[in-house]
Amino acid sequence: FGSRRVQVAECLLFRAGRVGCGGQPLSMKVTLKYEEAEEKSAHMTLRLTLPQKYINGPTKNVVKLFVDHYNKKHEDAPLDADSLHIKIAGGDHLEADAVVRDDMANGDECFVLGEAARRPAKRVAASAPGMTSPSGTVPGTVSKPPVKDDQGRVRCKRFGCQKMFDPEGEPTECIHHKAPPIFHETAKWWSCCPDRKAYDWEEFMRIPGCETGFCSANPEGQVGQKRFLGGCDVRASSAPVRLDEDAPKDPRVKLNDLRKGIVALGVDSALFDRVLNKLAAETEDLDAVVEKFRARFQSLVTSVTK
């Protein structure tokens, strides 16, 4: 009887989240970006629909798939798959042996990075909180020097600028964003301009900046900020707080209780998390997600009593 309950619960999740009955997603859509090269012509964005072969395998297989595509287009400067790894936008660096289904979700925006990207900046001396140098860097930290092209130019690091400029020459005016971008499911937007959303990378890059200034390789005010934000940042910043004593239970608490119950039945917790994230992205309302689950389980219980 216990195994039957597990099957029923997983089939409910199948109908809600379009995964295979038994817990395995049928496919997974992800976007991979390689932007480590200094020249934009060597950058690449690849949108993939991963079959179960890759979903059930390690992330290094996905990296190799990306590299195979990349090297066909860039034969003069091929990448080495063994020296690269995946980082989820606004999230974690993934180990090569991490299983895709456990650490990635449908709609993820990911970056293909070298091992150097894992290393934090070295701190060599303590400094007063919030203190910055005239160049905009935090005293006591050693940042990687900007890479110059053959004309002695470096890339502007202000959000959304991407211009190449001469740090020793006249100031170069740039139009940029004042806050980092958000990559959530397939949507992309700048956190400072939430009314302009895009679902295509090129369209996203065409969203005009909201501030003007001068190009900088170490922009003041961006030190310590995340370069990208993800779904967890969005949900954390928009979660409502009820102060009245008789407020109904927060939907997050309800969903957490449901998760505990389903896991107690033997259903894979990662499966529930993936379905929850999918429904949350579709409805953008956790109360609506709670109602979807309630209706499914109500229907199941009613059918058993007939």
TrEMBL record:
Keywords: Metal-binding, Repeat, Zinc
Segments for region (Disordered): 124-149
InterPro entries attached to this UniProt entry: CHORD_dom, CHRD1
Start-end of Polar residues biased regions: 130-140
Highest taxon listed in the record's lineage: Eukaryota
Repeat among keywords: yes
PROSITE patterns per record: CHORD
Domain CHORD: 156-226
One Pfam family here: CHORD
A GO molecular-function annotation: metal ion binding
Name this protein carries in UniProt: CHORD domain-containing protein
Source organism (scientific name): Noctiluca scintillans
